[in-house]
Design goal:
globular; 44% helix; 115 residues; Rossmann fold; 3 strands; three-stranded parallel beta sheet; alpha/beta
Length: 115
């Protein structure tokens, strides 16, 4: 889980942990890039709009990883503004708006992981 707002990252980690997932939370795109280079993940849940390193940069780093790459889900309060629409349409990454529904989040994650 990647979000520049620590409270959001920890809340998502708690919700997904309670749904049976092992979750690591990082508080920004730069930290996410470092982890993606050294760790293998099944899924990256990522805020789209973050300072310094945004969700697009995290997505691009994931795409450079060898197969099997982690799947991605974006969370964002700004996914429908600021020019992100084209990227989201082209990438095909599922996106949940913030605030997110506590039931929809784990359901979306299970669907993306094929559970």
């Amino acid at each position: 889980m990647v979000d520049d707002e620590p409270d959001v990252a920890e809340l998502v980690a708690l919700i997904l942990g309670n749904a049976g997932h092992k979750v690591e939370a990082v508080h920004g795109g730069r930290e996410a890039l470092a982890r993606i280079e050294t760790e293998a993940y099944d899924l990256v849940v990522c805020d789209l709009v973050m300072p310094e390193v945004n969700g697009i940069a995290v997505f691009e780093a994931v795409q450079r990883r060898p197969e099997p790459r982690p799947r991605m889900v974006f969370l964002s309060g700004y996914y429908d503004a600021g020019g992100y629409e084209d990227f989201l349409s082209e990438s095909g990454v599922p996106t949940l708006p913030k605030p997110f529904d506590f039931k929809t989040l784990p359901e979306t994650i299970a669907r993306v992981l094929g559970h």
